[in-house]
Amino acid sequence: MTREETYLDFTHELEAERNWRIGELSDVKLLFRQVKRMEIERYIDVYLRMTIPMIYAHWEGYCVSSFKLLMEYLNRKEMDAKTVTYNILTYANNRTYDKLKGKSSFAQRVEFSRKFVELLNGKIYFAGKLDTKSNLNYKVLQEILRIFGMSEDGIEMFEGELNSLVNVRNAIAHGENSRVIRDDAKMNQYIELVTNLIDLVLLKQVQFVQEGAYLK
């Protein structure tokens, strides 16, 4: 598979992942109009509360799915471990580093050394999926971008809104009744936020691949 073919496939997969999610968020706004026409206050309140976890789910879902696509792209390139950045090398081998947690015997440290040298002489390979801690707030987003060595430019303007979305989502998910969304303005604000964040992350992922930022 050529670099161009793989890159195009990767880009199209990202766009497809983005487009169906943004389309569904648009449907959320359209459905609200139908609910509002019923003029039943309780239905409106319930619908607005239901939308917040869904909006958040598309934000976290895009990040998990798109970074999985990115890791699969890197796997397909079958790169030597010695050629990638230390960030990529470390993240791809997280499970190996886990063996050093807590107390370890000399035999375990020897086994770690053997495994690590083996990894350095092999190909880079990602397994598993991105860990968002089920709370993809601003701090977690920063950590994800830093793991891959991606620029954080542009995300700082969304810090307050993103943290607000995560906090409201958590309150609703935990059954709290104090955070009721009274009108669709907040819903629309969060949908716009997630749309902008998805587009920004997608752009960073494409730039990451275009620039070969995974290489030393």
Description:
The chain is mainly α and 216 residues long. The chain has helices at 3-37, 41-76, 86-92, 94-98, 106-120, 138-147, 159-173, 184-210. The protein folds into 2 domains: 3-79 and 131-210, no CATH class; 80-123, no CATH class. α1 runs antiparallel to α8 and α2 packs across α7 (159-173). The mean pLDDT is 90.
Please outline what is shown here:
The protein has eight helices and no strands.
SSE map:
Elements (H helix, E strand, L loop, with lengths): L2 H35 L3 H36 L9 H7 L1 H5 L7 H15 L17 H10 L11 H15 L10 H27 L6
Helix pairs in contact: 1-2, 1-8, 2-7, 2-8
The mean pLDDT is 90
Biggest sheet: strands, sense, closure?
A: none
How many individual helices?
A: 8
What is the 3D shape?
elongated
Count of DSSP strands? 0
Report the C-alpha radius of gyration, rounded.
21 Å
Q: From the helix content, strand content and strand pairing, which structural class follows?
A: mainly alpha
- The H/E string reads HHHHHHHH
Helix proportion of residues, in percent? 55-70%
N-C termini distance = 22 Å
Descriptive key words:
8 helices, 216 residues, 69% helix, single chain, mainly alpha
